[in-house]
Structures are given as structure tokens and as C-alpha cells.
Amino acid sequence: MGDVHRVIAIDKLRNRLQKLQQRDMYRRRRIVGGPQGRTLIVDGRRLLNFCSNDYLGLAGDERIRDAFKAGVDEWGVGAGASHLVCGHTVAHERLEEALAEFTGRPRALLFSSGYAANLGAINALLGIPDHVFEDRLNHASLLDGGWISRARFHWFEHRDMRDLEAQLADSDHRRLIVSDGTFSMDGDLCRLDELVDVARRHQAWVMIDDAHGFGVHGKNGCGLVDPDKYDTTDVPLLMATLGKGIGTVGAFIAGDEVFIETLIQRARNYIYTTALPSAVAVATLRSLEIVVAEEWRRERLLELVRRFRDGAKGLGFDLLHSETPIQPMLIGDPGRAVALSASLEERGMFVTAIRPPTVPIGTSRLRITLTAAHETEDIDRLLEALDDAGRVADRE
Ligand SMILES: *Cc1c(COP(=O)(O)O)cnc(C)c1O
After folding, report:
1. Using a 6 Å cutoff on CB, does residue 141 contact ligand 1?
2. pTM
3. Does 212 participate in catalysis according to the annotation?
4. Which residues of the chain have pLDDT under 70?
5. What is the pLDDT of residues 311-369, one digit of tens each?
6. Whether 372 contacts 56, CB under 8 Å
7. Whether 75 contacts 279, CB under 8 Å
8. Of 112, 113, 179, 184, catalytic
């Protein structure tokens, strides 16, 4: 008798998993057998890689690997403790200074991931009487940060500044507007000029998550929030990850002293977690040098994006409007998106299907990402495979 309730609870979990399978919403991890790059070994087979966020092709770069190894020789592996105990090293400090300079902000603060940075920052800055305003398509970590802060949560329609403004009634409480810079599943950009303007008129703070723009666009790869155009009054909180364009791991928040010090005192995801390995900071510093110096990576990306979009026009897919390396093709039904992804894989292309809840219901898609590691003929091969796979799917 005593165990009945526990058994029933487990049955319910099992039913939930089965339902996910029936609705084509079950997620499976693919096992990759080598470093990130133009191709990937997936479950033992080499495929062209069109789903990584390693936009500049740096995750496997020899020079960054060497810097990482030298960092391990100098610092060992584990940081040993949190930043506020004894885990904060000269290497972390140097990287924070470099990130602050690169983003044109007085200070930058390292977090172990973008997910942690977003949760920690929003939760540290807002509380019960405050308000948070989020674009409907914001990344899950920004939404979760808003929810756990217990501030009043307001959605605004995707990139709709009128809808935002209509909700931004003036208030004595803190108000934070939060948006992806480049939307991770759609590839479009937030309307930063207008957003900054609306925020100024209503005395609200702005937080931009530039996870997919940092390193990838802007002058020297500084991202969407160009320091010559937007100062810390315009965008007090700038977040970016290091695990995408930069090719390592971790994330940071950049801003004025008072914000960064507040995060150090109050961001639970900063305080109660072990610091990143110092070797990661060493490798990331090396990567930043390469990101600035090798403009050709950003130029190559733009060329590849153009080539892909030109070629994809005639294929009969619903290609979303995006100028960034994220090129989603809207499919709609999750089963169909998964089938197309499998069909592309048979043709040697690795493109994952993105389904709810990552994207809204009815908008399952193939999320194609291009990187500076691709050759032009890779794009042509992808277009051919899409053409083939699309025709087969239409016949079925
Ligand atoms: C990937 C991503 C994050 C999370 O960053 P991690 O460093 O991978 O945890 C946050 N925001 C956006 C928009 C992202 O795409």
C-alpha cells in the first residue's frame, strides 16, 4: 500500500514520455564523435554540419586549442571555488577587462553560461513590485529569469514597439525591457533604435541578449550593441555568450559599475557556483584576438548567407526573413520537420528540426546555421539536398 502513490506517479511520467513520442515531440541526443567544424561525425557517420552555433568556425581552432592547453598547464583544471571565495583568478580578471573594453562598457562580469547569466541578472535586479517586459520570442533563459524574479511579467508581440509602448505605463517601480539581439530561432534582429527610444521616453532599463550577434556582426565583431552608437544609458545591460561565435564556453554581462557590483552582491547564479576554469578564460582571450583580427570570417559568412538565400528562393520552402547565419525554414508540423531532417541526413546533411516548446506551436522548422568554416560548394550541396528532400516530401 505504502508504495502505490510513488508507482502511480512514475506511471504518469511514463505516460507523459509516450505522449511526446506520439506527437513527434520527443527529443533525442545525437552522439558526436569529433570536434566541431565544417563536418561532424554523428553516430559514426560524417555529415556536413548545418546546425552548430559555432558561427565563426572557431570552436575547433588550433590556436585556441593551444591557448587552452597552455591555460591548463598554468592554472590546472578546476577553479576550486566560486568567484567570491577563492576561484577568481588573474585570468578571469584579464578576460573581464578585455570584454569590457571590447563592448565599450566600464565593467564586464563572467558567468558560467548564458543561461546562468540571464537568470542571475534579471533575478538580481528585479523583485515583487517591479515590471519586466519581454518579447514573445525571447530565449527561454530570459523568460525564466523574468519569472523567477517575481516581477510583474509582460509579454509584447515580437518586435512590436507599439505593443511594448502600450504596456509601459509610467511607474515608480523598476521596469526592465528584455530582448534577444538576434532571435535565436528566427534569425531576425530586435529593433534596437526604437527599443532604446521607447525605453528612454518611459524611463525603463534595457537588457539585450546578444548571444547570436557577439563576434558575428558589427565592427570587429562587437555585435549588435555598437558602443559608438549605444552607451550604457541606452543599453545598461548587455549579455553575450562565449559558447557560440567565440567558440569556447561561458558568458558575460557588461555594464556600469553599479549594475555589475549589484550582480556580484545579489546574482545567485554568480555567487553560488564554481568559477569557470581559468584555462577557459585564457582560451577565450585568444579567441577574442582572432575574432577582431580576422574580419574575413564575418565577410565569408555574409557571402554564404547571400548565396544560400539566393539559391533557396526557388525551392518552394517558406524561408524566414533573416540576414544572419540563422536561416530557418518554416515547416509547421513537427512530424514533417523531423522527416525532412532525417531525409537531409540521408543525403549527408546535418540539420536539426526545431519543435515546440522551443518555438511556438505550429511553427516547427528546420534551423539551418551557416558558419565561416563552410565552403561555397557546401552551400550548393545543401541546396541540392533540400531540393531533393522537398520533392520527396511533397510526393508523400
Ligand atoms: C544559447 C543562448 C543562451 C544561453 O547561452 P549558453 O551560454 O549556451 O547557456 C542565452 N540566450 C540566447 C538568445 C541563446 O541563444
Report:
1. yes
2. 0.96
3. yes
4. 1, 396
5. 999 898 999 999 999 999 999 999 999 999 999 999 999 999 999 999 999 999 999 99
6. yes
7. yes
8. 184
Question: Angle between the 376-395 and 334-346 helix axes, to the nearest 10 degrees?
Answer: 130
Cα 284 to middle of ligand 1, angstroms:
17
The closest of 14, 50, 23, 59 to 355, measured between CA atoms, is 23
> Is the preceding peptide bond at 227 cis, omega within 30 degrees of 0?
no
Residues 249, 41: contact at Cβ < 8 Å?
no
CB 175 within 8 A of CB 130: yes
List all residues 6 or more positions away from 192 whose beta carbon is below 8 Å from its beta carbon.
Answer: 181, 208, 224, 225, 230, 235
Tell me the three cell numbers of residue 75: 592554472
Please tell me which residue in 212, 278, 287, 343 is annotated as part of the active site. 212
* DSSP SS3 for 287: helix
Q: What DSSP character marks residue 232?
A: T
The sign of the dihedral angle between the CA atoms of 260, 248, 352, 384 is positive
How far apart are the C-alpha atoms of 121 and 338, rounded to whole Å? 35
Q: Check residue 185 and report its DSSP letter.
A: T
Q: Strand 107-111 relative to strand 326-332: parallel, antiparallel, unpaired?
A: unpaired
Catalytic residue list contains 341: no
The three grid cell numbers given for residue 348, joined into one nine-digit string: 549527408
Catalytic residue, candidates 83, 131, 139, 244: 244
Residue 241 alpha carbon, nearest atom of ligand 1:
7
Backbone CA torsion sign across 109, 114, 118, 120: negative
Alpha helices in the chain (DSSP H): 4-22, 62-75, 90-103, 114-125, 140-149, 161-167, 192-201, 257-266, 268-271, 278-293, 295-312, 334-346, 376-395
Q: How far is the CA of 114 from the centre of ligand 1 (A)?
A: 5
